[in-house]
Amino acid sequence: MEPVIGLAVGGGTGPELATVFERALGRIADVYSVEIGITRSERVYHSYSSLKADAGIEQIRELTREDADHYAEFCRAQAALGVPAIFRTAINAQSLYLVRRRLQAVKVDAITAPNASLLLVRDEAQGFYTGDNTHIPGALIRTMSFSREITEKVIAFAVRRARQQWPDGEIDEIVMAYKFHLLDGALDEWVAESAARHGVEIRLSQPDTVNRNLIERGPRPRTVIIAGNEWADIMHVVLLDRFGAERQENRCTENVYLHFEVAGLVEYQTVHGSADDLEGKDTVNPVATVRAAAMIAERHAGCAGAVRLVEGGLETLRRRGIGTPDLGGRHSTTDVVDALLDVLEPEGQRILVTEP
């Protein structure tokens, strides 16, 4: 049976990047002589800019909820059908975090420094980002929560993924970057219990302490950082730049859902946002989307070596000076994708695209 991959598209440059994804996944499928199905959500989800363009506060609240409800149900439906992965372009963050809270998401990114490997596990399921808003005259009240259950799930995932990352079991350091001083000692207790349960040492640190240590000495050779969104959302791009020698525009990452209804479903996304200012200009950088297609093909569609194949193609483009304006190039999105697909292996079977 052919593998099927989900596709969810947001506003801004989302439709353009969805086309890039389909083309890249299709060519990889050709190279490996396999068929890969794509099931696309029928709703185009809002970006923040698209919401602000046509809606007032009350309508924004309504559309945000509608997008969140629809996307959460799309994820549940795909998981029930056995779909292992979804590629999603950027959507409005408020809708996205409502889904991440409901489906208990973590974001994971392995960042390789010259002398170290840093595994960043971002807790997307609790905290300020996942809160609910209450409007009263002249004010907005945002209510959020932390829980023992979610904290344990996030730590358990991080330890499990670290042991997959380093199969010999050697982990030099596990750090948690949270504003725990604001939580009455509760997070300290939950973390200590979880560390004992998993047989590891975990250092709970204030975000500024984590930053100071990274600046002074960098990560230890095998470091896991588990972090709340309040720190990780800001620092992810900084860690990529400082330790991974990578721009966010070129980077994709994965979100793993931990709720039992969708357990194991993996969502891939670009690190960059919806880039609404580039909509319709054919200049959005396609590299992160192409890399996501390669990762999905290799991990979920049996195309062993697809990441290496695509990285080789991207290196060929770099040597030829082919790139979008954000990378100092003069080429359009379409030009870059055409050039990349041309340097990959010859076509085989065509991709199958199915509608839900």
Automatic annotation (TrEMBL):
Residues 4-340 form the Isopropylmalate dehydrogenase-like domain. Its cofactor is Mn(2+); Mg(2+). The keyword Metal-binding applies. InterPro entries: ICDH/IPMDH, IsoPropMal-DH-like_dom. It comes from the Bacteria. It holds the Pfam family Iso_dh. It comes from Microtetraspora malaysiensis. The keyword NAD applies. Keywords: Manganese, Metal-binding, NAD, Oxidoreductase. Gene3D superfamilies: Isopropylmalate Dehydrogenase. Signal peptide: none annotated. This is Isocitrate/isopropylmalate family dehydrogenase.
